[in-house]
Amino acid sequence: MAASREREKLHTELQAERELRKKLNDKVSDQQDRIEIMIQKEEQLKREMAALMQMRNSCVEELKVTNHQLEQNLVMKTRELALANEKAENQWRLINAIDREAEEIDSKVNETRMLLESKEKQAAELESKLNKFLTWDMEVIALMLMML
């Protein structure tokens, strides 16, 4: 009887060990599955990051092109305004003797100056917005790099 009890006890322990081993194997399998999922997520995030970096680089290049165009436009407008100002001064000297024509030219010069100030203000606002965007873009990139 003692041997039978001992055998039954050992059999029970063996069964308990098998159940524990199965649970442990299940947990290991679950962890391996989780690791595989995390690896897949990491790869996906890397692909997304690469795509975002490509988009960022494209945006930066587009902004460089746009900025260059704006600078060229500003130079051209400055030249045009310098020529317009020179013409206005020449007309002012020629027409100074005639009050009525002088008043008309004075009015035109004032309109041109107000338009110039408006355009300069718009250009300054656009430059400010561009600087804010570039600063924000760098901050976003820095944050994204810190997240890695």
TrEMBL record:
It comes from Chara braunii (Braun's stonewort). The keyword Coiled coil applies. This is Uncharacterized protein. It comes from the Eukaryota. The keyword Coiled coil applies. Keywords: Coiled coil. Residues 7-129 form a coiled coil.
